[in-house]
Amino acid sequence: MRRVTASPAETEALAAALAARLGPGDVVAVSGELGAGKTTFVRGAAHALGVAGPVSSPTFTIGHRYEAPVPVAHLDLYRIAGLDPEEWGDLEPYFDGTIAFVEWPEHGGDWLPRARARVTLEHVDESHRSVSIDSDLGL
Ligand code: ADP
Ligand code: MG
Prior knowledge:
globular; seven-stranded mixed β-sheet; single chain; binds magnesium ion; 3 helices; about 25% strand
């Protein structure tokens, strides 16, 4: 499905609708250029999944893991140039029993678990974003 959102809140609401269909072990790949709304999307999903408090981009670490009824992981692979087995070993725990959202999934190469949903965000104008979701979840 593809929808154009008119505000960050609308992007978060769309993310919440997807989140309601996810379960432990699911991975969501979130693609799009800088400022497209990837972190905004993950924030909406994480809060819908019961994460309390701020959800911000993992800038100085590769990932965050939040406690919630099903723990939520948020990874940003922007600075990853290509994983080696040792680096994958550091990342693997983020996927263990969590619902995991990965920004810049294309930087993870073949190491990442298969995504349950692929989300692509694109700029339309200052306040509008095109949000495409490719999944077998009916959304
Ligand atoms: P990314 O993680 O892709 O770099 P962010 O989510 O951090 O992007 O930032 C997106 C920026 O775009 C935020 O400043 C947000 O307020 C703004 N924005 C404006 N309109 C939208 C929209 N419709 N959906 C999501 N973000 C939007
Ligand atoms: Mg981001």
